[in-house]
Structures are given as structure tokens and as C-alpha cells.
TrEMBL record:
Protein name in the entry: SDR family NAD(P)-dependent oxidoreductase
InterPro entries referenced in this protein's UniProt entry, alphabetically: NAD(P)-bd_dom_sf, Sc_DH/Rdtase_CS, SDR_fam
Keyword Oxidoreductase: yes
Keywords tagged on the record: Oxidoreductase
Record bears the keyword Glycoprotein: no
UniProt record similarity statement: Belongs to the short-chain dehydrogenases/reductases (SDR) family.
Amino acid sequence: MKIAIVTGASSGIGASYVCQLAEKYSWLDEIWVIARNETALWTLKRQCIVPLRVFAMDITQTENLLRLEEELEKVKPYVKYFVNAAGCGINKKIKETDLMDCNRMLEVNCNALTLLTKIVLPYCGKRSRIVMLASASAFLPQPGFAVYAASKSYVLSFSRALRRELKKTGTTVTIVCPGPVDTPFLDTIGGKDSIPVIKRPFIMKTDKVVSVAIKDAAKGKELSIPGISMKCFFRICKIVPHKVLLKFT
Ligand SMILES: NC(=O)c1ccc[n+]([C@@H]2O[C@H](COP(=O)([O-])OP(=O)(O)OC[C@H]3O[C@@H](n4cnc5c(N)ncnc54)[C@H](OP(=O)(O)O)[C@@H]3O)[C@@H](O)[C@H]2O)c1
């Protein structure tokens, strides 16, 4: 059985990924969709041409990860596509961030992503594509959004190392690093108004970010950075010392 697995499938980038994979890879036997919002996942199931297998679960709970592992062991699928899109962010200074919110960001963005990758990896093979949702905030420390940005730096570093480890297996890892994207995520960080005015014209459409990521992953690219502004930001962060850039953040 050939499948795709998408976390964070109930909304935003993950949901768009499911729809676009179903169109572009219509030969997939199933797409396994993971998120807590069961209603949203069932709604998605009705819209898709490829059958979806719904895993309505919190990925920070180990017993749920074990349930997924058991299902994989039972079905023994070939995972053509694995998208780690689940994520959350709170934009507050560290001192003002609630302890549980801090923990949630690390649990979802780092822990769950790592453990899920370990669980899914044995079912990937030649021509499999792993896609990790990092963020442009992985390129530079972000005062006021420190834990989130650091968690995305973790995703970037972990995924680069994984890509290297998988070099001879034919499985590629593509790290998606968008700037702001027009999804419900923006509401959780205070809405579009919380984005500095200068950055607002650069808010990208979800479907565009996903279509670029699908093309980049198909080519086996390491990084998928949608939009010219974030590409420039990436270059600047590589050239200019972070100490200097941090003076302007
Ligand atoms: N939007 C942006 O501006 C932006 C920019 C750069 C990077 N990103 C990254 O892109 C990824 C997708 O974000 P998005 O913009 O699509 O945000 P979103 O619309 O808020 O979607 C986040 C997804 O993560 C899932 N999720 C969160 N906590 C979970 C948990 N404990 N267990 C299972 N699923 C969980 C949510 O599902 P449930 O709530 O149903 O569980 C939802 O499907 C994230 O990793 C985010 O950091 C976003």
C-alpha cells in the first residue's frame, strides 16, 4: 500500500498539503491525516479524492504515537510522502510566556516531530519524500518569539542532519521555511495586526507555499523558501553577523 502521512492536517498548511497531494499523487492508496480536531479531519475526508485514514489525536501523547506505530506495523505501507506540518507558536517574551505554553511549543514543534519521524522512517524508501515545516524564523533568533524561533532552528538542524544520514537511501528531506502565511496560525499569534507593518505585504497564501514546497520536494531540494523576500532574508542571515541583525529586531 502506498500512502502519504500528514500531521497538522486539520488546518492551514497541513490541510492544503492533503488536498494538493490528493490531486498530484492521485495514485496514492491512502493519506493518513493526523490532528486533534476530528471534525475538521472528517470534513477534509469528504473533500478528497484519495481515501483518508483519520487519526484524531494529540501528538504530544506517547500512547497516541504508539498507536500510530502499531498501525504502521500492521499495514506495512510504503510511505511515499511524510509531511510534518503540526506546529504551534506563542509570541511573547520568555518571562511573560506561560510555562505550559512554552512546554507545548517544544513538545509539538520538536519532540513530536522527532518521535514521529523515527516511527515513520522504517516505512520510507527509494523516492520517499519527507517534508518538515520549519519557518524563516529558524534563520535568526527572535526576541519576543524566542522559544518558537529556537524550536524551528531545531527543526532545521535536525532535518539537515537527517537528510545527510538518508543520502544513500533515496529518501530526501525538504525543509520548508516560509515567512508569514495566511493561516489560522496568524490568529494564535495575535492576528495580522501583530505582524509588523513592513512585513504585512509579504504574507503568503497557503496554497502557494504548499505548491512551491511540493515542487521543491519533488526535485529533492534541501530547502524550500517561498517568496523573494524570505530568500533575501535567508541570504542576509547567512552573511551579516546575527549580533548586528539582532539590533534591528
Ligand atoms: N502560518 C505561518 O505564518 C507559518 C509560518 C512559518 C511556519 N509555519 C509552520 O507551519 C506549520 C503549519 O502551521 P499553519 O500555519 O498551518 O498553522 P495552523 O493552521 O494553526 O495549523 C497547525 C496544525 O497543527 C496541529 N497541531 C497543533 N498542536 C497539535 C497537537 N498537540 N497534536 C496534533 N496536532 C496538533 C493543528 O491541529 P489541531 O489543532 O486540530 O490539533 C493544526 O492542524 C507549523 O509548524 C508552523 O509553525 C507557519
